[in-house]
Amino acid sequence: MITIRDVELDGVRVTAEDVARVAWEGAQVLVGADAWERVATCRQMVEELVTSGKVVYGVTTGFGKFSDVHISPEDAVQLQANLIRSHACAVGEPLPEPTVRALMMLRANALVKGYSGIRPETLKLLVNCLNAGVHPVIPSQGSLGASGDLAPLSHLALVLMGEGEAFYQGERLSAAEALAKANLQPITLQAKEGLALINGTQAMASIGTLTLVKALRLAKAADMIAALTTEALRGIPAAFDEDVHRVRPYPEQIGVAANLRTLLQGSRLTTEPGEIRVQDAYSLRCLPQVHGATRQVLGYAQEKLAIEINAATDNPLLFVEEGKVISGGNFHGQPIAFAMDFLKIGMSELANISERRTERLVNPALSGLPAFLSHDPGIASGMMILQYVSASLVSENKVLAHPASVDSIPSSANQEDHVSMGTTAARHCDQVVTNVSKVLAIELICAAEAAEFVGAERLAPATRKLYEQLRAIVPPVLTDRSTSAEIEKVAQELLLGDWQASVEAISGPLY
């Protein structure tokens, strides 16, 4: 029996894989003794600031445009409650449960750094809710991505107060009911705590991190599927020769070329230049260059998210050792907005070239195979409309790939006069990646069907494994049938990454 490892939050070493385990596998989170001490020490600083009456944004003042309004100590509790209630106005479909789990984890990870001033008991309730499966209902729309993800995170904070709604064991309940069923008690937020819970980038970072993990899995799947397509089209692997790629030494291009050589090793379907044709079309011949360029984009997004998920993004930040409280702008989501927009473009292109390979598979003038891979051409349409669906998805991606980060609408009476739209970028990126999974699924189904005509028994060992996994849930399309459910199922398998791992068990580790 496989045991899911706990994830310790220290504000420094959390990885995207950790986030995925908590989000998708239900891993529990822990907070170490050192982190609890940091949180308690920082909280003491807040208490002293409240007592002293020193002007500190969000502690002894109002918020945003109201930052010049002094708040007395006796009004501090009401201030925090009002903040959460007024800001919990997001709209749209609730974020999926895995995304909410990732969001809760990342907010806790930011708090354990010890710069936020939250009480240990408030952090403990957040962690306990996550581990008990009390998942706040967080509408997906309404964040400007600066001052952080205020509206979405307010719905999280609302549940800790015993207000709003939460999912618990499959039921959508009032927060009070959900907490009671989990044997948890709501808290009354004290000075600075409301602000500490909502001033951050965890909505965009949670969506972005889970999207990145899926994108990385799809990038590897794309190489595998493209290798199978290359065989089905009797392609020429000479274009993947190591010498070609060492003279244009992008590491990612070199890595994809190496993947393709490994995946095609032992194939009896690939050809030599001049055997059938002198050179392949770009969608085959330029695989390392295009897939490699997408890998470059993935690397950029990985680098930025690795920083963001371990960052302190509050305002103000409390530096205990230095005795400083500083109002800054770490909540501004511009780095993640750019990363998500860039990732949208890179993944869209992965789908674009996949759709072109699907077209080559179903077009008899390009493939030399029966039209639309039909086993009864004219009577049966075969794979004809699968290519239509793929074309529709890549067209939709081109709209979604429009950058959100180039837009900004001033808010809070122009106090917050430049925002990132990073959460919008992340949401659109997630949709792009979902579409890519379906485009790749369609190519895989078509490539497997084409292999029936050229001889699946002659596939390379690695691609044969991929073909067999596909065939376990998608039998040959000998007569016309609806394939919608099969496309969705294959897309889900590609997003899970298990098929890729099985192929690597045959081929050895891939880049």
Automatic annotation (TrEMBL):
PTM-bearing positions, type 2,3-didehydroalanine (Ser): 147
Enzyme class of the recorded protein, top EC level: lyase
Entry's localization field: Cytoplasm
GO BP term (any one): L-histidine catabolic process to glutamate and formamide
Keyword Cytoplasm found: yes
Presence of keyword Transferase: no
Keywords: Cytoplasm, Histidine metabolism, Lyase
EC number of this enzyme: 4.3.1.3
Pathway: Amino-acid degradation; L-histidine degradation into L-glutamate; N-formimidoyl-L-glutamate from L-histidine: step 1/3
Post-translational modification: Contains an active site 4-methylidene-imidazol-5-one (MIO), which is formed autocatalytically by cyclization and dehydration of residues Ala-Ser-Gly.
GO cellular component: cytoplasm
The reaction(s) this protein catalyses: L-histidine = trans-urocanate + NH4(+)
InterPro entries the UniProt entry points to: Aromatic_Lyase (IPR001106), Fumarase/histidase_N (IPR024083), HutH (IPR005921), L-Aspartase-like (IPR008948), Phe/His_NH3-lyase_AS (IPR022313)
Chief location of this protein within or outside the cell: cytoplasm
PANTHER family recorded: HISTIDINE AMMONIA-LYASE
HAMAP family hit by this protein: His_ammonia_lyase
Entry similarity comment: Belongs to the PAL/histidase family.
Protein name: Histidine ammonia-lyase
Lineage, uppermost ranks: Bacteria, Bacillati, Bacillota, Bacilli, Bacillales
UniProt gene name: hutH
